[in-house]
Amino acid sequence: MRIRPAAFGDLPALQDVERAAGAPFRDLGMPEIADDEPPALDTLEHFRRAGRCWVAADERDRPAAYLIAEPVDGALHVEQVSVHPRAAGRGVGRSLIARAAAHARAEGLAALTLTTFAEVPWNAPYYARLGFRTLAESDLTPGLRRIRAEESGHGLGRWPRVCMRLDLREDGAVPAGPPRVTIRAAHERDFPGFLGLAAQVEQWFGPMVEEAGFHDAVRAHISRSMALVAVSSGPDLLGGLLFGAEPPAHHVHWLVVSQRARGTGVGRALMAEATRRWVRGPGHLEVVTFGADHPGAAVSGARVFYERLGFIPAEATGPGPEGGSRQVFRRTVG
Question: What pTM, to 2 d.p., does this model score?
Answer without folding.
Answer: 0.58
